[in-house]
Design a protein that fits this description.
heterodimer; A: alpha/beta; formyl-coa transferase, domain 3; 2 domains; three-stranded antiparallel beta sheet; B: Rossmann fold; 16 helices; about 35% helix
Chain lengths: ~400, ~400
């Protein structure tokens, strides 16, 4: 049997957003038993969000839901009922960790805050993710991903200086908060392992996101310098148009650059005038005017491989189709086939990193309420009659 | 009373350079691990800059931040005597982090198969650009490379077929994947006593931790909704609008018809509420360009902070686009006591990315001076004689920016 790093841990997943769901996806992939608690009838908020598999809108076809909930169990539970709250309390008593990311304290409004729960269950760990933290003047502020971009400082520096700041396409800040929540949860579990007591984790997505500009922000804190919008400081270091798309041309590691004069047609690029990085930075526009037609004449993959053959960290802008067909991904088995009863068989990203003894496993996302019997019957010991009552009463 | 930090008693050797690997070790150090950074005098880390004067390479703010809470020892692993010191250090450590070029660790005798012979339950994290196997195993990369080759960059642009824009470095994303790997391995070791090897491909980790759902969308439907510029795939309007002042901007997102009607009230345009062009989400999506002009007319009359306060007061998601100086002065962050001081000097630092109720992160020291802890490591940790601690040889110093 495969060893799992987090086997034996039970997680109650109350999250509805990307941050909490990515955190619990990681917990599940490394072996924890993650039970997602969803509203009866409509389920996790993410189930209503497209895009949908085959563009068929439905509870079981939301692509974000299918990705962020791999390997989890699903139970339904109505928080609005007294019985529901009682059931959630019973679930928390058999859990190691509760993860929540809905506006701070959905649980506390129902008398289920960490301080209450720990009295009967001192080992419990509660991971609370919110846009701006549980305290402070913005703690009740609402945010979608673009607002997190704005308030975490990255957006101001992204895009064209002549245009508006640009938000990242992917959900960068919610993912980052999810990663921090995972790390923090494991730190709490690690500490509990030695002293037996749990604790509450407070992840402010804004503060988590500030890490992305830690270098810029340090220059501000210590030298009052401000970051700007635009390209990289170094030359060349960026995306240039080429024959069939865009190439990433980087003059690093620096010591390999001047030995690569055979890379481009124009000998001036490696001439004395531009020999030092400082020379090129001082003459940025002039240098890029020489470089651009040289790159434009080349194919993106050809340039990628030729640069790398000279030890230079080149790249090219790959479309999503090209990523799915990447020979590197294929050879390393990065994509894994997952079979879902409604969506069918598809390729998903597998392990975020490869662990030699306790490998990652990918399993399909659950159907809404698929594990009610397993969890309420198997774990909490509810009788079939009791479960029928709960279902009839709209509790599950 | 706060208790001891969670990773107290864990010792980490940080052989990595640049940003992603050092960021990973920094976060673990913030929460109590003892991190020992091994530096090579003849080629200093990129973050120590291009200048060979100690007053400069020891003082770059980026260095002080990314390597805070770390000790520094200088070793030349091409020399057997120094390799022997590293072997001794591995014996008393828990985790080894590296991001060297393909084959370098093996050549030096510190590949995992060798390292695990030195310390049986060692956790070793390799953070190669493209991973340790596969046709690109020998290729190198920085954030710009993973972002482009990984498909991430293709999803960010001002408009559908516009030039792909970089989000910026992905070092933090990859550093966090590294810290996730180390924590997963530590939890397993605590339970079983078993160490392990982690092959982290920065290409894969960044892809997994940013665009998994977009790859799945393409695998399922053969299309991608991104890029969308500053707009939302479902909600409308959403955008980034000019506000009062030079290069000052504000974002807002209207998620529901109700929020739209609140927006009309707050901007003193009740007539928009009955305008069929904006009545539903679909209609607002169709007329987004027109809405952008109308919205900017209002935001342009307010500072970004005022506009945010007004809109958030109505429950509408809105964010002032803050620059670094505004973040430093943020009232919210101040009230949360986010920023921290170095314990002895009071030097100002960023705080913790998360807090734990029963323990705490710390900034016991800024990024170390080169070789500052040679004596601590060699004599105190390894019990060797003081004679083995060589004085710093300034003429040996080389930087990552030297031509050779």
């Amino acid at each position: 049997m495969t060893k799992r790093a987090l086997s034996g841990l039970r997680i109650i997943d109350l999250s509805q957003g990307i941050a909490g769901s990515y955190c619990t996806k990681l917990l599940s992939g490394f072996g924890a038993d993650v039970i997602k608690v969803e509203r009866p009838g409509t389920g996790d908020r993410m189930r209503a969000l497209g895009p949908f598999c085959r563009n068929e809108e439905g509870l079981e076809t939301s692509i974000p839901f299918l990705w962020f909930n791999t390997g989890k169990k699903s139970v339904t539970l109505n928080f609005e009922t007294e019985k529901g709250v009682e059931l959630l309390k019973r679930l928390s008593e058999v859990a190691d960790v509760i993860v929540e990311d809905v506006s701070p304290g959905i649980t506390s409004s129902r008398g289920l805050n960490y301080e209450v729960l720990r009295k009967t269950h001192p080992g419990l760990i509660m991971t609370s993710i919110s846009p701006f933290g549980l305290t402070g003047p913005y703690s009740n502020y609402n945010a979608e991903e673009i607002e997190l971009n704005a308030l975490s400082g990255g957006m101001y520096m992204t895009g064209d200086p002549q245009k508006a700041p640009l938000a990242a396409g992917p959900a960068l800040y919610q993912y980052t908060a999810g990663q921090h929540a995972y790390i923090a949860t494991l730190m709490a579990l690690f500490q509990r392992g030695s002293r037996g007591e749990g604790q509450q984790v407070d992840v402010s997505t804004q503060e988590s996101g500030l890490e992305h500009i830690e270098i810029t922000l340090s220059y501000q804190l210590q030298q009052k310098k401000n970051g700007k919008r635009g390209g990289h400081l170094f030359v060349p270091w960026g995306t240039y148009e080429c024959r069939d798309g865009y190439a990433t041309v980087i003059s690093m590691p620096y010591r390999h650059w001047h030995r690569s004069a055979d890379l481009f047609e124009d000998p001036r690029l490696f001439g004395k005038k531009y020999a030092g990085l400082r020379d090129r930075m001082a003459l940025r526009e002039e240098y890029e005017e020489i470089l651009k037609p040289c790159v434009k004449a080349r194919g993106k993959r050809e340039l990628f491989h030729e640069g790398q053959a000279r030890n230079l960290a080149f790249g090219y802008v790959a479309g999503i189709d090209e990523v799915l067909g990447s020979p590197q991904h294929r050879e390393r088995g990065f994509f894994e086939e997952v079979d879902h009863p409604v969506a069918g068989k598809h390729q998903y990203c597998g392990a975020p990193f490869k662990m030699s003894e306790t490998p990652w496993q990918t399993a399909s996302a659950p159907l809404l309420g698929e594990h009610n019997a397993d969890v309420y019957g198997g774990v909490l010991g509810c009788s079939p009659e009791e479960m029928q009552q709960l279902a009839d009463g709209g509790v599950i | 009373m706060k208790k001891s930090p969670p990773l107290k008693g864990i010792r980490i050797i940080d052989l990595s350079h640049s940003w992603a690997g050092p960021h990973c070790a920094r976060l673990l150090g913030d929460f109590g691990a003892e991190v020992i950074k091994v530096e090579y005098v003849k080629r200093l880390c990129l973050l120590r800059g291009a200048c060979k004067q100690a007053a400069v390479y020891n003082a770059h703010p980026g260095w002080l931040q990314v390597n805070r809470n770390k000790y520094s020892i200088t070793l030349d692993l091409k020399v057997e005597k120094d390799r022997d010191i590293l072997r001794d250090l591995i014996k008393v450590s828990d985790v080894l982090i590296e991001n060297s070029r393909f084959g370098v660790m093996e050549k030096l005798g510190f590949g995992y198969t060798d390292a695990v012979k030195i310390k049986k339950d060692l956790i070793m994290l390799s953070m190669a650009a493209f991973g340790k196997t596969g046709p690109y195993a020998s290729y190198s990369g920085y954030g710009a490379v993973f972002e482009s080759v990984g498909g991430i960059q293709s999803l960010t642009a001002y408009e559908k077929n516009g030039k792909p824009v970089r989000i910026k470095e992905l070092d933090v994303t990859n550093g966090l994947a590294g810290a996730s790997a180390v924590m997963t391995a530590l939890v397993h070791r605590q339970k079983t006593g078993e160490g392990q090897y982690i092959d982290l491909s920065q290409l894969e980790a960044a892809t997994h931790g940013l665009i998994g759902e977009h790859l799945l969308e393409f695998a399922m439907n053969g299309t991608s909704m991104l890029p969308l510029g500053n707009r939302h795939r479902t909600f409308a309007p959403q955008g980034c609008y000019r506000s009062l002042g030079d290069d000052k901007w504000i974002t807002l997102t209207i998620r529901t018809d109700e929020e739209w009607r609140s927006f009309c009230d707050v901007t003193s345009h009740p007539e928009w509420k009955s305008d069929a062009r904006f009545a539903t989400r679909e209609a607002r999506t169709r007329n987004h360009d027109l809405l952008d002009v109308m919205i900017e007319e209002w935001t342009g009359r307010h500072t970004h902070l005022q506009a945010m306060q007004i809109l958030q007061g109505m429950g509408i998601p809105s964010g002032a686009v803050l620059d670094a100086e505004e973040i430093r002065n943020s009232v919210h962050l101040k009230e949360r006591a986010y920023f921290m001081n170095e314990e002895d000097s009071g030097m100002l630092f960023m705080g913790m990315p998360f807090t734990l109720s029963g323990s705490e992160g710390r900034i016991s020291r800024r990024g170390p001076e080169l070789g500052r802890d040679n004596e601590y490591v060699i004599c105190e940790l390894l019990g060797r004689s003081k004679k083995e601690v060589r004085p710093m040889q300034e003429d040996q110093i080389g930087t990552a920016y030297d031509p050779e």
